[in-house]
Amino acid sequence: MQKKGTWMESIRQQISAFVATTFPMPAGDEESQQGRSLLDSGAIDSIGVLTLVTWLEEQFGIVVDDEDVVPENLDSIDSLVAFVSGKLGGTVQAG
After folding, report:
1. Residue 33 pLDDT class (50, 70, 90 cuts)
2. Which of 53, 45, 36, 52 is nearest to 95 (CA)?
3. What residue spans of 1-95 are helical by DSSP H?
4. Rounded CA gap, 61 and 41, in Å?
């Protein structure tokens, strides 16, 4: 069984890689990209949200309910990691 930190890092790496290849953001410090708004930066739009939700469901075997599709869950790498962790039974907070 993976330790929680390693498990979380694996989720972060998978999400970061998907976002970087699917929704390229302007260049910048990678660490600052983790908390950067995907919506405000223009990296993701409404179609992008659907793409992201579909990928999250397929990649992690979770169900993203309609009420889950809010910026608090899907607007940054940090919030995505916290959201997926919560869906998978973790208790990690974004940020």
Report:
1. low
2. 36
3. 4-22, 30-35, 46-60, 71-74, 77-87
4. 28
